[in-house]
TrEMBL record:
<dbReference type="Pfam" id="PF07394">
    <property type="entry name" value="DUF1501"/>
</dbReference>
<dbReference type="InterPro" id="IPR006311">
    <property type="entry name" value="TAT_signal"/>
</dbReference>
<protein>
    <submittedName>
        <fullName>DUF1501 domain-containing protein</fullName>
    </submittedName>
</protein>
<dbReference type="InterPro" id="IPR010869">
    <property type="entry name" value="DUF1501"/>
</dbReference>
Amino acid sequence: MNQAPHIAPDNASRRAFLRRSAALSLAGPATPWALSLAAMGEAAAATATDYKALVCVFLYGGNDHANTLVPYDLSSYNTQQLFRSNLAIDRQALTPLLLKPSTPLPDGRQYALAPGLDPLLPLFDAGRMSVLLNVGTLVQPTTKAQYTAASVPLPPKLFSHNDQQSYWQSESPEGAASGWGGRMGDLFASGNGNATFTCISVSGNAVYLSGKSAVQYQVSTTGSVPVSGLQSPLFGSSACSAALRQLMTAPRVNLFENEYARVTARSIDAQAQMTAALSGVTLATAFPSPNSLADQLKMVARLIGARSALGTKRQVFFVSLGGFDTHDGLLNTHPGLLKNVGSAMAAFYQATVELGVADQVTSFTASDFGRTLVSNSDGSDHGWGSMHWVLGGAVKGQSFVGTPPVIANNGPDDVGQGRLLPSLSVDQLGATLATWLGVSATDMALVLPNLRHFSTTNLGFMAA
């Protein structure tokens, strides 16, 4: 089955409210007022009349940001080449992809998209895309001096694939039980017609979508996965199929067996509902092929197109592309990966325009970490901070968010080999997206516990 046990929506709502009540018990005389705010947040999630969705595009392996968002002004370009001349992208090839923000960066700093990301340039120019400079995993704001002295808590097991993938998605290392996408799902599941369709992955299991009560519903690029004996008559007999279903879903005395049967029944029912809903959705938008990320995003677009049939008001999706661990062969591998990302995300945005929900759907990139500015033989090694982007009609686009890092090896903004020390945290990125989705300030600590360490919690790149 492709779902884990799920607490009934009403119980999930009550438990979330009780958790907030307990957290606010120290508020003294302000407690009744604070609890009223919590109740208002709960009601708002349950009665939302509009639709919004977040789509996380995860680039597994650690994307080489320096060959994704490339310094273009002559001084920065020449400095970067000192550290990776064997990985250089010709500056003339970057000229057509120069990003021209509505507010120029200080000191004449300029960036260009790497070739392959061409389809994203018109979206940036149209104000539908913003670029985040040097974002990564942090526990709290951290200076280089604090990092060197080990005087503040750091994300555990830095530069480790599994742990940093998990920390990006959950604020905890490998083995985390829930992610911040799933914790948003906890708040919104009760407002959806079927809570099962709140958090949907088209890329297998991802802790990002696991909540305290919300589950991640996993689908393939062709839809939900059926039980073969129920999809068509078993042994040519509908009676055999009915008997199989009864055997799989009948209540049991044993608690574990009964829960398994209950989850199985829910999975079968959800598959039937989703299949019926998707049958009424067709898209004219052309998605590139062959392109596994485009296939995943096309399914997300179809699911969004089926939102009315599914009764969903708030959804969180997860898609991914692997292959970004470019220790070697970067110039042979990376351009093709970026081409897949750029063409897939551009097609997905056009599909949201076709569906009339471009202002209601926001996609964003994420990755284990960035990579070293200093090259090895013909690739780059594990880093920390990276460059990412957000895309959608509600994005305050044609802009850079954050401060351009100094291009150096062991300079003021890196911890050695050009490994960027993040100046923006995943928590700040997540909080900005969560606020747009409708998470209240009261609930934000449930979604992103580390956010309390940051004075700026909204980066301002989303419209209200």
